[in-house]
Amino acid sequence: MARIRDEESFQKKRLQILDVAAQCFIESGFHGTGMAKICKAAGMSPGALYRYFPSKESMIEAIVEQERADADLFLADLAQAENKAKGLAKMMADGVLFLAKARSYCQLSVEISAEAARSGVVAQLLAETDAVMIEALVAAVEKGQAAGDIDGTLAPEATTHLLMMMVDGFVGRLAITTDWDVEAIARQVEVAVFKLLATPVM
């Protein structure tokens, strides 16, 4: 009789392997990390590992999916904000605080971005994730403009890309910097983004 997989145990083990692989990617780079190294670090045979992840790319896909889930939490808060200028400003500030508490997350994101320049598969995964975020942020900007809270002269898509580039900058800096006054920076980010977006007072 075929063995029935314990889905909960399978997913738990999958996350454990993913944590090990992520650390390997941070230490040696995605390009410099082979499946053999991940197997050794995880204490598993290749055959056992491939039951959970058939390739390094599948691991990257799982990591990107986790990042997408984190982004969804921020977007859920933004959706509840009545004033979208304030909501977007708070989302950006909260993002700085979140990233500052997860330096390894930032380091891994930088590594994945670097791999995207070499791998079409990874680039496509990131593009798909970005598309979801872009759509949600553009909609928020447009809604804020319709309500009169966001400057109507701003181009929604260009503004969204600017905000996303700011996030990329936070990730890059926090991957290598440990001595920031993060609370002060987060407060300044919230003020600056609100001033960027808010409808000018006549």
Concise description?
Helices cover 77% and strands 0% of the residues.
Task: Describe the model.
This protein has 202 residues and is an all-alpha fold. Helices cover 77% and strands 0% of the residues. The protein is built from nine helices and no strands. The chain has helices at residues 7-28, 35-42, 46-50, 56-80, 84-100, 103-116, 120-147, 156-176, 182-197. Helix 4 (56-80) packs across helix 5 and helix 4 (56-80) packs parallel to helix 7 (120-147). The radius of gyration is 20 Å and the shape is elongated. The model has no long low-confidence stretch (mean pLDDT 90).
Tag the structure with descriptive keywords:
202 residues; mainly alpha; 9 helices; 77% helix; elongated
Order of helices and strands: HHHHHHHHH
| Low-pLDDT ranges | none
| Cα-to-Cα separation, first versus last residue | 76 Å
Query: What structural class is derived from the secondary structure elements?
Result: mainly alpha
Mean residue pLDDT: 90
Helix content: over 70%
According to DSSP, the number of beta strands is 0
- Main pleated-sheet profile: none
Strand content: under 5%
Give the overall shape: elongated
Number of helices: 9
What is the rounded Rg?
20 Å
